[in-house]
Amino acid sequence: MINTLVIDDERLARQELRSLLTAFPEINIVGEAENVDEGISLIEKHSPQLIFLDIQMPEKTGFDLLEELIQIPLVIFCTAYDEYALKAFESNALDYLLKPVDPNRLKEAVQKVLRQLQETKGGNTLQTELSEDQQVFLKDGDKCWFVCVGDIRLIESVGNYARLYFGDQKALIHRTLNDLEERLGNAAFFRANRKEIINLRQIGQIEPYFSGGLLVILRTGERIEISRRQAIKFREIMSL
Predict the structure, then answer these.
(1) How far, rounded to the nearest angstrom, does the alpha carbon of residue 47 sit from its chain's CA centroid?
(2) Which CATH class is domain 135-238?
(3) What share of the chain is helix, strand, coil (3-state, %, to 5)?
(4) 3-state secondary structure 122-153
(5) Is pTM beyond 0.70 here?
(6) Whole-angstrom Cα distance, residue 124 to residue 37?
(7) pLDDT 10s per residue in the chain (240 long)?
């Protein structure tokens, strides 16, 4: 059974989706919410594997909800936006459904969910710490991304914010470096210094540096100094 939440401010839309989902015995609807705050509360309570999420809701949008989560379930957007509007957000959610929901499109979306969970062995997507194959939602201004944790190569502190680098993109999020370091405990990330966290799997070259430190050059060319204290831990991890 796939524990599922429906988050939409329109009662009739929630009812319609609930009705359509009765055709899929794998889907177990554990709750529904009419706004972002209720949705976050239910996500924390039920740790669902899947959410059907409206984008445009009063006060806060569906994107705002995802931005408040460190780990996110699988997401299927239910929206009145057309395909081109969704693409403008640079978001690659599992799928999206246009309202009114077409049963055949819903079937395709559910099949995607089943395939995705089979690939990840059906595990619950919400865990205390992030693994490399999990996705996180990043929002910076009008741009949004779903990013695999393992694709993040560098995180740098910007006051109470953190800037994440992935692919040819970067996003500034309202999270401290300490918070992210704690959440990335089981992933291949290392605190290089007070200001930066690096992905160990993205390292291309290592060189000696001043005062017993090290200089790490990522495959994309960024040069990161590992402080003397952290260099000791780094050598232990990397068996240098």
Answers:
(1) 14
(2) mainly beta
(3) 30, 35, 35
(4) CCCCCCCCCCCCCEEEEEECCEEEEEEHHHEE
(5) no
(6) 22
(7) 999 999 999 999 999 999 999 999 999 999 999 999 999 999 999 999 999 999 889 889 888 898 888 677 888 988 887 654 555 444 556 778 888 999 999 999 999 899 888 876 644 444 456 778 777 888 888 788 888 889 999 999 998 899 999 999 999 988 889 888 888 866 689 999 999 999 999 999 999 998 889 999 999 999 999 999 899 999 988 875
In three-state secondary structure terms, 33 is strand
Contacts of 171 (CB under 8 A, 6+ apart): 138, 139, 140, 143, 145, 163, 164
DSSP-derived letter for residue 175 is -
**How far, rounded to the nearest angstrom, does the alpha carbon of residue 24 sit from its chain's CA centroid?**
26
Measured between alpha carbons, how far apart are the two ends of the chain, in Å? 46
- Residue 144: the pLDDT is 80
Peptide bond into 48 cis (omega under 30): no
Give Cβ neighbours of residue 102 (< 8 Å, ≥ 6 apart).
none
Residues 6+ apart with CB under 8 A from 65: 7, 36, 39, 40, 53
For domain 2-119, the CATH architecture is 3-Layer(aba) Sandwich (3.40)
Could you give the 3-state DSSP secondary structure of residue 185?
coil
In the chain, CATH 3.40.50.2300 covers 2-119
In eight-state DSSP terms, residue 202 is G
